[in-house]
Amino acid sequence: MGSFPLVDPKPDFEALEDVLLGKAEPKRVHFVEEFADVEVIDYVVQNMMEEDFPSLDETWASAGSDSHQIAKAQKFLAGGAFKLIDGEPDEIRVKRDIAFYYRMGFDYLPDLAPWHMMCAMFGTLAASEGLAQSFESHAAPDTADETLSRGNRNWMEEKIGFVSNWDDFERVPWDRVDLDMLGIDEYYDFIGKHLPEGMRVTALGCSFGPLVTTLGFERMCELLFEDPALVAAVAEKWGKLNLELYERMLPHDCVGFAWQADDLGYKSQTLLSPAHLREYVLPWFKRYAELAHRHGKMMWLHSCGNIYAIMEDLIEDVGIDAQQSFQDEILPITEFMDTYGDRIAGMGGVDMDKLCRLPEPELRAYCRSILDHCMPKGRYAFGTGNSVANYIPLESYLTMMEEGYRYR
Amino acid sequence: MSVLKEIGESVLGYQPKKAEELTRKALDEGKSAGEILNDGLIPAMDVVGKKYEGGEIYVPEMLMAAKSMKAALAILRPILAETGVESKGRVVIGTVEGDLHDIGQNLVSIMFEGAGYDVHNLGIDNTKDAFVEAIKETKPHVLALSALLTTTMIQMPEVIEALKGAGVRDGVKVIIGGAPVTQEYADQIGADGYAKDAAAAVTLVRDLLK
Which of A84, A108, A113, B152 makes an SS bond possible with B99, Cβ 3.0 to 4.6 Å? Predict the structure, then answer.
């Protein structure tokens, strides 16, 4: 449909960086997303591009897919490696993702694989010690259109996690999470060889999310009052693992920036009090930002929800350079840019609800209103309010992209 | 400090064990279950609600206040039932079909209980028929629907239509909430109200049932 996939993309990550840092005015609209769901990638690649890739096969489709991780985990438990690139399926996955984001006009490859694999390693080790959190009972039929549906979508367990008390904590084989096994250097060497000129790749991390998953959100809330030392201990473990991951990812030339993807809020507030976030979470974010900046790279934050109680902390203390994930019901991107756009970049902001439900003419007008407001201010890149989820009608996503591509 | 005020303070201090001990102490001192609920617990949960709405406390504090309140209610419930103390109203609450998110609606449930309502929590992933059956069985004053995603929120008008089809719509106030939900959407689908958070839900129901 329309201009996408682009015939002659011209990725320019340095231009994107200059725009986001306020060093240059944009010559065009740059696109930013946390990621696209693998079903969207596969559909576009199979049906809209000439490049020849095998069709979606859950044995290799995504480093994040359950069956692919299970296969790797079984190899790991049997004494084998747990490598990011471990055979042709992994190589094909990377090449396919590069092809998609390149042709969709992105200046970078959004990539969650190293972080996913670190968490998968942790999950496998914890399960092998009998500390298992089952996602089986938390799947519901996907609400996506049949074309893009994955069948069931998993939902996060909200009540309990792997660790409920100190005995559980001591049983977790923290020291066996060995990032050297992932083959990160080899991974980025491969990516670097296959990225088109002008493109970079993300170095994505997430530390609050695993803290919540490890303790269970409701149990964590109780522990904050009943045994805060346990919360601190788990936060320390994940904060450190995430730092070590960044330390391995950021030195690579093909890595363009650090992206801390951690949902800190919901509709009306931060998930924990600002005081708790300042104690257990933000000090780690600060270390990640400092590391990124030492490598001459930006620190982006993806956080859903109402995080405005800690926005000053994030800008002034942590030192984030850009924020993504906006919901019109909380703070539309246009207002965010008015308030904070002179200090950090804003990215995305096309509300997910509107993308899902607006008819085409209204969606086009809405996208244009965001572009009209945000582009002249600078320090802005266009995209969805969250991610290219498989439940967004594909036509609506392409309509949004078309408006961005044609905007002058 | 009176024991009823102490019970309130234990809820506001996020102390479930103390709330339980003080409730037993209050009963031993001759306080009725109704007094403990109406003069000890409910005023404390009102304060919790106001603090939450005012941004002074957050979800962990709400959950701990609720845990404290529930510890006290666990002792009082059988006595309240025996002595026929009436609740302020009956509420059925649940997450719509295809939606497995329940922490938000659990918080709403807690606040309703803390305000003296009798709450039937249907949990997650409820078909429209499940809501209709619950209405027929429980005859609540309020049905509260929750959804996290835009793509599950669209079940809400289906539930309202199902209530009409079953002839039970007129007897119940329908309120909605959740991340993608707005007042505009509530008006559009014919709900009786929308609440942006758990504390606002209680205020809304109090107004609707006046």
Answer: B152
